[in-house]
Write a structure and sequence with these properties.
The complex is a heterodimer of chains A (about 90) and B (about 140). With about 90 residues, chain A is mostly helical. In chain A, about 85% of the residues lie in helices and about 0% in strands. Classes of the chains: A mainly alpha (about 90), B mainly alpha (about 140). At the A-B interface, helix 1, helix 2 and helix 3 of A face helix 1, helix 3 and helix 4 of B.
């Protein structure tokens, strides 16, 4: 039961990553690309959580938390650079 | 080990399907919607509902089926709930900033182009400060 749901989840998140990649390549604007990268980070966190359920390990949560923080800081960095021409003023 | 409730299997499976479905829906909206301001809406649903359900599934799985409850998942979802609106707001600001500077690669949405900022506008809001509010800091 859980194994079938996990298979569906991996497939759905993989397809979602492919959609994000299409938007990342296609653009058209820089803000679209930032949004696509931000969404990719969110989906990869979902993949890590699913892998943690499948492996029944508690190590996945540290990875998910780290990725959430790094993804947020990356998005803010991109946006700040485009808005101000600098990241830390 | 305590006996496993019979509904735990179903609960975890349903939560995984809901979460992955919403993540897929958010990315599909990112592909399909016509302009950035509309596109911003879709992945926020993927963050709150999709990842929220996935993290809840992980929480239920470890608590009911493995017998070791932990609150790490709640920490991840709390951080995501706090940070997702901030990053969406910053992306919208980048879009407006580039629109006002006439970037041809950023087409305006169905609401049309934004109004030009006033001369004494603040960079963060693009609005003139309200009368009586502190502003015009020296050397800013």
């Amino acid at each position: 039961m859980i194994a079938a749901a996990l298979d569906f989840g991996f497939a759905a998140l993989g397809l979602a990553l492919a959609f994000n990649l299409w938007r990342l390549i296609r653009g058209p604007g820089v803000s679209d690309r930032i949004l696509a990268l931000d969404t990719m980070v969110i989906n990869v966190i979902g993949l890590i959580v699913l892998a943690g359920i499948e492996a029944a390990s508690a190590a996945a949560f540290e990875a998910a938390l780290l990725l959430a923080m790094v993804g947020f800081v990356g998005t803010v960095g991109y946006a700040k650079f485009l808005l101000r021409g600098d990241i830390i003023e | 080990m305590s006996p496993v409730p019979p509904f735990a299997d179903w609960l975890v499976s349903v939560l995984i399907v809901i979460g992955a479905g919403f993540a897929l829906l958010g990315s599909w909206g990112l592909v399909r919607l016509p302009s950035l301001m509309e596109r911003l809406h879709a992945p926020t649903k993927a963050t709150t509902l999709g990842l929220g359900a996935l993290l809840l599934a992980s929480l239920v799985f470890s608590a009911l089926l493995r017998g070791s409850a932990s609150t790490h998942e709640l920490l991840v979802s709390l951080f995501l709930f706090v940070s997702a609106p901030v990053s969406a707001n910053l992306i919208a600001k980048v879009h407006l900033h580039r629109l006002r500077h006439g970037e041809p690669s950023e087409p305006p949405g169905s609401a049309g182009a934004p109004a030009p900022p006033s001369p004494e506008a603040d960079w963060a809001t693009r609005e003139a400060p309200h009368p009586g509010s502190p502003g015009n800091f020296e050397g800013d």
